[in-house]
Give the backbone structure.
Amino acid sequence: MEVTRALNGETDSGDDLKIRQLESQRMLRGDMSEDELEEYVRSRVLTTTLDAALTWARSNAIFPATFGLACCAIEMITLVGSRLDIARIGSEAMRASPRQADLLILSGRVSIKMAPIIRRIYDQMLEPKWTIAMGACSSSMGVFNNYAIVPADKFLPVDVHVPGCPPRPEAVMYGILKLRDQIQSKPDLGWRARYDAGETIEVLGTEGVSGGGRSITTRQHQPQMPAPSAAQFLKEASIAAAPGLVLPPTAGPTRA
Amino acid sequence: MTAPSKAEQAALADYRKLEESVTMSPIERVGESEELLTINMGPHHPATHGVLRLLVTLDGEIVRDLRPLIGYLHTGIEKTAEDKSYWKVIPVVERMDYLAYYFNSMAYVSAVEELAEVEVPKRAQYLRVIHMELNRIMSHLFWFGTSCLDIGAMSLLWYSLRERDTILDLFEASSGQRMHTRYFQIGGVAEDIPNGWAAKAKAFAEQLPGRIDQFRDLIYNNEIALQRLKGVGIVSSERLLELGVTGPLLRASGIEWDLRKAAPYSSYDDFDFGVPLGAVGDNFDRMAVRLSEMEESAKIIIQAVDNLPGGPTITDDRKVALPPRHELATSMEALIHHFKLVTEGMRVPPGELYTAIEGPRGELGCFIRADGSAKPARVHIRDSSFVNLQAIADMCRGSYVADLIATLAMLDPILGGIDR
Amino acid sequence: MPDPTGLELLASVVRSRLGEEAVIQTVHHRSHGTIEVEPAHVGATLELMRDEGYRFLSSVHGADHYPEEPRLAVHYELLDMNRPDRVNVKVRVHTDSPHVDSVAPKWPTADHQEREIYDLFGVIFDGHPDLRRILMPEDYEGHPQRRDFPIGGEPILFTHHEAEGEHYPR
């Protein structure tokens, strides 16, 4: 019987396993030097940054808020059904309270009476939070281009738009999976940086939507950055602004 | 963050004051408790079906008064409909009561057909009946699932959604869309059904009563469900008639009024089906009536499929329906009709009328005023939920908050129809 | 639907009880009957219809006859469940004094429906227990369903506008 030793990865024979076992025994006995120990850890232990771990956890357990407005809500509830179960991708619990929800699926047409309420609910959600504008009515005006409804982009930032009237549950599922990919690839939630964030002010008056009535517009201001060290800390820890602020700095793309 | 300016602050304060200034009707102080608390339920609330806002005045846990506030889903559908030609109104109007889309389009289309004196071929009428009854079953299934979710029997949501998905597959096979199919066209239906569709529909309708029995087994033997539903939310049938309530709510209180029987439209008199009635008019009766209605609808579907006549699926009046494409190559008139219909739309002679059909929630009426042009001058849908909602206060006064939830579920409000 | 004779009989009942000038006209179109009455007599007409058997008020809805005057119309769709039969009572008012007596006290179903007509058309129902806007926000100005109210909506942003640097074309 021949005993051969070789570096890990350089041979693909069954000797690999023997080598690994011998190395483990040496490690446990405390016979390894510093460098050898580091090499051992690098090759065996799954390491990651806190960033990536948090992102992985967040993206695989997105709890939608039960926010059904109109017809798209029916298709959203069908998503909960057994054919296309969103529980299997992590959205096991649809939380009714916005404080406990991560994802706001705007399913349905947003009327001018409802828009401030949706904004308030969105503000109550804790960071990190995402929005999917489901269906044509919330993304653009949909079938109805008239005085009574508002596209969602006017008053809150939307991450994913899912077209359809109503979109098939498979389409919404695709949108949620796309959101999941977005979360995983952009762990610092850079939409605020993308949109050059400012704050949102509810403006009462007759501008904006024609025919009179209120409008909710977003205005761009110079972003109030916190002190650099705090920002650095926040970025590294990948935990965004604290909840409990009455008007957290939030954004939306500026329109006319 | 910059603070809002003084003017903006003042404007905000005014608006908040306006929001809070909804006056409640004066409530007499009742007996034991002097402490009445008015709270707001909704419009975002897990129990309200859609964006319904309720101002509830509570005395402890007992509801003393209730005021529904609506308008959070108002989409200006009727205004949009005035802007579109007659065909193009159909998808707009379908999206009102979003669980009864075939009924919305049927109400509108039959009103236009009456105004324009268009005859619908027999096959189209039968196809319409099959689709409408499938839609009725689907609407009741969804209602059943969400109501049981509200009263706590969550598992029934998945069972009813499963049946519902089969129906939506049928809709997808016949028209290409699961919801808001725009299948009904003025003069008939847009397309004939594919091969095998009728057999599938019949197979579904045949296995449905078994499933409904399974649902009944789950609910009727459940002590908690029975306690929550029996004897709760009773309103006398006279009061319901005064309030304009129709549909399963009225039938649950014992009044036999079904437009499919009283004023049959679209060949409903060819079919033999019953109209389930309730005895007491409580929440349990409302649930039982709807479950039985599903079985009756299944009967209608089986009869319609068995007797489905052949023939055209749309009228051959070229001023109303497109000519078949093979004619466009040979006939000049067909080409001109096609051109006029597609560019300008069909014209309807001036007049106004109101037609009503029996939707899943009650009388679904459509008032159309035509002024002779290609666009309707007024389209108004008398939505059943809009009128039925006025009964919620009477149903809930004097009962507990938990009963309010159950009663609201049994009322089956669909905010799309209420707010239009 | 009453046949033309039945409709004329109903109209004559109204004329005999409320006076000749109460009924403006009767229209029988596609087997649907409409009795148009003076706005002041609408409550009494509905009570007469109730006595004739039309005890269920199906629908109260409005229409705008712009540009014909009087512009704003209110329709009361009545149903007799026993025959069964429907009849429509119609009332027309001008925009400068759009007052109609409310029938909500006697017909509770008209409550929300009259509020909707007030909200969308601007017809003021005197005697309504709670006349407020129902579908539009409380502080909304204007009555959207009137035919001279603009349809509103967002202008459509085409890609070439964005490419040219414009946001929304005005």
Notes: Chain A has nine helices and six strands. The first strand of chain A starts at residue 64 and ends at 65. Strands of chain A lie at 64-65, 103-107, 130-134, 160-162, 199-203, 215-219. Residues 198-256 of chain A have pLDDT under 50 and may be disordered.
